[in-house]
Design goal:
Strand content: 15-25%
Strand order of the largest sheet: 1-2-4-5-6-7-8-9
Number of strands: 11
Oligomer: single chain
Protein name: Diguanylate cyclase (GGDEF)-like protein/PAS domain S-box-containing protein
Distance between the termini: 74 Å
Structural class: alpha/beta
Radius of gyration: 20 Å
Number of helices: 12
Bound molecules: ligand C2E, calcium ion
């Protein structure tokens, strides 16, 4: 038994060392990519359901390095959060989204709003409000074109600080959305205090919407709650026409997901945009 114990211990140590090494390699790769500006923004369309009009684009960061194994944001964002480099990435993302928005407006194209994801680590580290203002100023973009998405769990972890953070962003005129809604245990009391214009229902509730009656009831309740608070509700991860119709019929205002369009580079997203002044 003793021998088996020692063997198990060694196995764990080796596994941990290996995991730490993989992480370290990824960290090095990410720092280099930041310095060389190798990140790219892709965009996914957000549609209003009753008339299928494009109301916005969510900016999603990508890292394409030929010759290196592909790595997605779900894997690299947590590493950047641990090292604090998420602050530098967030600054680049916000700036690039504002630059792109300005360029489209100059072409007479209407994208509604560009939504940028803000990590709770950025909120915690401070300076984010000033960085957002600087990005808007640099590109001469009016604040109402920018929407910032912060996860419900991130907001809940930081209580009063979140409330103050959201209020200073709102005072600048940017729009605010609660991301991954339904997974972070906020209450009606929180929602009333947060100056947010949108709730994004987490994809996890939409996936089995047509077969799981508990999910269907929860989605219904979230839509009703948004309504009663005067907050617009968007469903994430809509993949089928059936889901889209159901959501529209229960009064969900907007949706996003593979059914409407996958994230794509700016040149592709450009083709989804409306000519300015058509609404
Ligand atoms: P998120 O903010 O919840 O973004 C939505 C994710 O769901 C995206 O994954 C998107 O590609 C994916 N998605 C959209 N529609 C569908 C669908 O119909 N079905 C399925 N299965 N998936 C769908 P992605 O781009 O891999 O991003 C993953 C997460 O990484 C994001 O989740 C967000 O938390 C984070 N992230 C991405 N870009 C940024 C960024 O610029 N800054 C920060 N802080 N986080 C980011
Ligand atoms: Ca998001
Ligand atoms: Ca989300
Ligand atoms: Ca998410």
């Amino acid at each position: 038994a003793k021998r088996a114990g020692r063997g198990t211990y060694r196995y764990y140590t080796e596994a941990l060392t290996q995991a730490a090494q993989v992480r370290l390699q990824l960290d090095t790769r990410l720092r280099r990519a930041l310095a060389r500006q190798e990140f790219e923004l892709w965009y996914q369309p957000l549609y209003r359901l009753h008339d299928r009009r494009l109301i916005g684009l969510e900016a999603l960061v990508r890292l394409h390095q030929p010759g290196l194994p592909p790595v997605g944001p779900a894997e690299f964002i947590p590493v950047l959060e641990d090292t604090g480099h998420i602050v530098a990435l967030g600054e680049w993302v916000t700036n690039e989204a504002c630059r792109q928005g300005r360029a489209w407006l100059d072409e007479g194209l209407d994208f509604g709003r560009i939504a940028v994801n803000i990590s709770s680590v950025e909120m915690q580290r401070g300076g984010t409000v000033a960085r957002v203002q600087r990005a808007l100023d640099t590109h001469g973009l009016a604040a109402e074109y920018l929407e910032l998405e912060i996860t419900e769990s991130g907001l809940m972890q930081q209580g009063d600080h979140s409330e103050a953070f959201l209020h200073s962003l709102r005072a600048m005129g940017v729009q605010l959305a609660i991301d991954d809604f339904g997974t972070g245990y906020s209450s009606l009391a929180h929602l009333k205090r947060f100056p947010v214009g949108k709730l994004k229902i987490d994809r996890g509730f939409i996936r089995d919407l047509m077969t799981d009656s508990a999910d269907a009831q929860l989605v219904h309740a979230m839509v009703a709650m948004g309504r009663s608070l005067g907050i617009s509700v968007l469903a994430e991860g809509v993949e089928t026409e059936e889901q889209m119709r159901h959501l529209r019929d229960i009064g969900c205002e907007a949706a996003q997901g593979y059914f409407f369009g996958r994230p794509a580079p700016a040149a592709t997203a450009r083709q989804w945009l409306n000519p300015a002044g058509t609404e």
